[in-house]
What we know:
- The protein is mainly alpha-helical.
- It has four helices and no strands.
Amino acid sequence: MASDLLFGFIQKRNVGQLIKCYGRYGEWEKATELCIRLLHALLGKRSSDEFDPTIKRINPYAPVEPVIPETVIQRLIGQMEARKSSNPKVVPVSLH
């Protein structure tokens, strides 16, 4: 599908902006899923090949440039908690 190609291209160029766009247009589940995949790549739990080349496993002893502003992550958590309370089918999100 053409939209999948477009989203894949944007994800390779600027994943943080794609997460913000998903949130802006109410696609909270997609934004949260992408955010979790990104955090797992940063933590070395999955390959970072699907993201732009600046996304690499972080060194716990080196300074880190933020990829996603903390406010975006807080909004995602708030939206998913709201959906969990209104929809019992929503599974709690875990970053562990």
